[in-house]
């Protein structure tokens, strides 16, 4: 009897801490909420079923961002859907399509009296997002060799035919993510591994402690940590920050800056790694960019996952 090798975890939690000196900003009005990001997708060999898993990451929004539109709804239906979207390259008949498939995983209710302009403040005030998993089915379109994202979609967008009326190239026009989060059709998304094979991180968490630094240190300071990856065969994989930020390879920090990540000296999104049937170790380096808009201790966190080129 053949034994299938089992995963233990599918993503790494990355956290950063630093002290910096910069002009003061009153950050008391900002709010931090949890937002879901996909961490793993497993599809069957026929591509009809896929099991998707997601966790949550903290997202900090300013007063203006909280009052910006989070989802446009139909005037008669005051709710939106949290959905998982995947790119459709072809259907089961082999016809190539630039389309987007979607699966609703939750109804996002608006508070009483909300208009069709559903703000992020309203969304987070009545909805608590938690980690989860769901098996989806698509008998007409291929679910393997695809890539996946998660976002809100308003009922006003549900009048067309999927997937042809909603191509992946323009799906960001119909979907909603909080300010700073990468849109659905951004370059990096969760992909499916080859049938019965996978790579997964052995490392469960990484902490980059920058200690106490001054404003003059910001452009030169670096911190490095090793990440250990286990694969079931000699296969290629990539590391990516899951829909973390509109700036590729970065994590937003609570003082307005960003932490940029490189692996083996190259950007995450540009690096393809060769796995083995066993463990490999990769050096991950964080640097700081941008201007700090407050002083004191600051932090940020994100999720690094595996995708397949």
**Termini Cα gap:** 31 Å
- Output the structural class: mainly beta
Number of strands: 21
Q: What's the helix count? A: 2
- Element order: H for helix, E for strand: EEEHEEEEHEEEEEEEEEEEEEE
pLDDT under 50 segments (min length 5)?
1-6, 17-28
Give the C-alpha Rg.
20 Å
CATH class: Mainly Beta
- Mind summarizing the main beta sheet? 6 strands, antiparallel
Average pLDDT rating: 78
Question: How would you describe what is shown here?
Answer:
The protein has 309 residues and is mainly beta. 4% of the residues lie in helices and 49% in strands. The protein has one domain: Immunoglobulin-like, CATH 2.60.40. The protein has two helices and 21 strands. Strands 12, 14, 16, 17, 18 and 20 form a six-stranded antiparallel beta sheet that branches. The protein is flat.
Keywords for this entry:
6-stranded antiparallel sheet; Immunoglobulin-like; 21 strands; about 300 residues; mainly beta; 2 helices
Summarize the structure.
4% of the residues lie in helices and 49% in strands. The protein has 309 residues and is mainly β.
Topology of helices and strands:
Blueprint: E1 11-20, E2 31-43, E3 49-61, H1 63-66, E4 69-72, E5 79-90, E6 96-109, E7 117-119, H2 120-126, E8 132-137, E9 147-154, E10 175-176, E11 190-191, E12 199-201, E13 205-212, E14 222-231, E15 236-241, E16 250-252, E17 258-263, E18 266-267, E19 273-274, E20 278-289, E21 296-307
Parallel strand pairs: 1-13
Antiparallel strand pairs: 1-21, 2-3, 3-8, 4-7, 5-6, 5-9, 9-10, 9-11, 12-14, 14-20, 15-19, 15-21, 16-17, 17-18, 17-20
């Amino acid at each position: 009897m053949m034994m299938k090798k089992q995963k233990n975890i599918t993503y790494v939690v990355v956290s950063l801490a630093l002290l910096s000196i910069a002009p003061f900003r009153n950050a008391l009005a900002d709010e931090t909420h949890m937002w879901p990001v996909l961490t793993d997708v497993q599809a069957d060999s026929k591509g009809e079923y896929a099991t998707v898993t997601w966790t949550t990451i903290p997202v900090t929004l300013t007063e203006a961002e909280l009052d910006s539109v989070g989802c446009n709804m139909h005037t008669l239906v005051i709710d939106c859907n949290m959905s998982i979207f995947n790119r459709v390259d072809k259907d089961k008949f082999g016809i190539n399509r630039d389309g987007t498939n979607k699966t609703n995983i939750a109804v996002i209710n608006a508070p009483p009296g909300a208009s069709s302009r559903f703000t992020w403040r309203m969304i987070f005030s009545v909805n608590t997002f938690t980690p989860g998993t769901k098996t989806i089915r698509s008998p007409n379109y291929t679910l393997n060799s695809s890539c996946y994202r998660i976002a809100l979609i308003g009922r006003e967008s549900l009048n067309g035919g999927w997937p042809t009326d909603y191509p992946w190239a323009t799906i960001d026009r119909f979907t909603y993510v909080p300010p700073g989060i990468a849109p659905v059709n951004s370059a990096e998304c969760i992909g499916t591994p080859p049938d019965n094979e996978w790579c997964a991180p052995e490392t469960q968490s990484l902490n980059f402690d920058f200690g106490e630094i001054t404003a003059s240190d910001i452009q030169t300071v670096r911190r490095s940590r090793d990440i250990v990856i286990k694969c079931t065969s000699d296969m290629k994989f990539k590391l990516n920050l899951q829909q973390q930020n509109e700036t590729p390879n970065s994590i937003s920090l609570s003082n307005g800056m960003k932490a940029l990540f490189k692996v083996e000296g190259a950007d995450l999104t540009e690096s393809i790694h060769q796995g083995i049937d066993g463990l490999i170790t990769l050096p991950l380096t964080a640097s700081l960019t941008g201007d700090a808009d407050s002083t004191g201790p600051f932090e940020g966190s994100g999720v690094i996952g595996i995708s397949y080129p």
